[in-house]
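User: For my dataset I need records formatted as: sequence, then structure tokens, nothing else. Please produce one.
Assistant:
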Amino acid sequence: MSQKQATLPLVLASTSPYRRELLQRLAYPFEVASPEVDETPQAGESAHATSLRLAIAKAQALQSRFPAHLLIGSDQVALLNGVQLGKPGTHERAVAQLQQMRGRSIEFHTALALYNSQSGTTQTHVDITRVTMRQYSDDTIERYLRHEQPYNCAGSAKTEGLGVILIERIDNSDPTAIIGLPMIALTAMLLEEGVQLV
């Protein structure tokens, strides 16, 4: 049996179409499943700690359904002036977030966890992306939100869509991290687990 055939099956613990699209770039078979995880930050928890805790929780939440699999969990937290920006959920909250972010720099902490549900081992990584926003108008915010409706996106600015019109600069080591799944780190983790990607 080849190494590729012997590898545990892969599961993406997310229903995000953007994470699914990123993982498809590897041209390696995987399943998608929705983890049921409370994403509320804990009191006094840093953005780094919140994103990492939730990424691990998402991966491990599926272990009973997938007892001999490699489970991928990921979570992203936006940080502005030391305050976590969650998913806005509503149009009004998204407007308020984008007004706060205007002309400022935001840190996006994107955590990744690869959990081997057979061995119980977990590999983790947190990527930090710094995004500098333009001095956009309230009218631009309204037009963007009506078009994109990014209410389930931390910080309300989707770089994989029209959100690029709000952004002046992005600084990071992995361009896929800001979309929600750090593929460079994930590739290293999968290779560590013996997954033959090519």
